[in-house]
Design brief:
151 residues, mainly alpha, Thioredoxin-like fold domain-containing protein
Length: 151
């Protein structure tokens, strides 16, 4: 099944959007938010939103996740112009099937010719080397540093 991801995104942009959206598929509202932002042409804001959403991750067994309205507030505070299209995509789960299909197709398969098999998400490789995902607020900075070290 071929699935396209927004007419405004090129292949590399769609790949980054896929990476960010698939990385948090355990929480449907979050994947909806990131996919909607990317599709709306605001891909550059996805890493900031991802970081801000993770910073508000609740802890404890009784903690509740942010609802759609709170997620949209987080996006807006991260520089996203929250359009009606983004709100509708978050509320309806417009990209849910696409993200799930991409996730299902990728798990258990080799990642290119790196010798690494995708076993879990998030998995990030920079220049063939796996970046440890710590979810401690340092992931984005370490990712950017890893990218800079390849230049």
């Amino acid at each position: 099944m071929a699935i396209s991801f927004g007419s405004r995104l090129g292949k590399s942009a769609a790949s980054l959007a896929l990476l960010m959206a698939v990385a948090i598929t355990r929480v449907p509202a979050r994947r909806r938010l990131l996919a909607a932002i990317a599709d709306d042409g605001q891909l550059a804001r996805v890493p900031a939103v991802y970081t801000a959403v993770l910073a508000e991750q609740p802890t404890g067994e009784t903690a509740t996740l942010p609802d759609n309205d709170r997620l949209l507030e987080i996006a807006a505070s991260s520089g996203v112009h929250v359009t009606s299209a983004i709100r509708e995509a978050v509320d309806t789960g417009r990209w849910d099937d696409w993200v799930q299909h991409a996730n299902d197709a990728a798990i258990g398969r080799p990642i290119g010719d790196t010798g690494v098999t995708l076993r879990y998400v998030p998995t990030v490789l920079v220049n063939g080397r796996q970046l440890e995902i710590r979810e401690d607020g340092t992931d984005l900075q370490r990712l950017l540093a890893a990218i800079d070290s390849t230049r």
